[in-house]
Design a protein that fits this description.
single chain; 159 residues; mainly beta; Jelly Rolls; 7-stranded antiparallel β-sheet; 6-stranded antiparallel β-sheet; 1 helix; 13 strands
Length: 159
């Protein structure tokens, strides 16, 4: 099977480039309408060790209206030392994930099944806890596997 990343996946900024985790971070929210599966991809630069927590959220609109933490365990992978290895390690599925409190560059992938969202919830976002460290940063992307492929997948940043 030939899969074209740009035609089968909608790739959307989750943060406005690298942003400090000092004060916490609320990622942009994306609509999962027409989406088969979604991944939150986060890259961290931890210049000061902190057990920074990632909390996936669901909402009823990208505003984010009615945002609440997910309640179904998501599949999670992480590489806690990207300067040393390029291997993502499968972690225990959970509704949130916390980094090790050490100094390192890290990568975290959280897989979300939109079918797990009930009621009017069809929007995905996340929060990142306050590291209280101005030199700790995160940048993120969403990878949205679309139900229909095409040269121009539908927008995910509006409802």
């Amino acid at each position: 099977m030939n899969v074209n990343l740009a035609e089968h996946f909608k790739i959307v900024d989750a943060t406005a480039g690298p942003v400090t985790t000092n004060g916490g971070v609320t990622g942009d929210y994306v609509s999962l309408k027409g989406c088969k599966r979604a991944w939150i991809s986060l890259q961290f630069t931890q210049a000061v060790g902190h057990a920074t927590a990632i909390q996936p959220q669901k909402a009823t609109a990208v505003a984010p209206t009615g945002a609440v933490s997910i309640t179904t365990a998501a599949r999670i992978w992480s590489n806690l030392t990207t300067a040393v290895t390029d291997t993502l390690v499968k972690r225990t599925s959970a509704t949130s994930y916390a980094l090790n409190a050490d100094v390192a560059k890290k990568h975290v992938m959280i897989e979300i099944d939109p079918a797990e969202f009930t009621g009017d919830y069809d929007v995905l976002g996340f929060t990142i806890s306050d590291s209280s460290q101005a030199t700790n940063f995160v940048s993120g992307l969403y990878f949205l596997e679309m139900g229909q492929s095409g040269a121009t997948p539908p927008t995910a940043i509006t409802d």
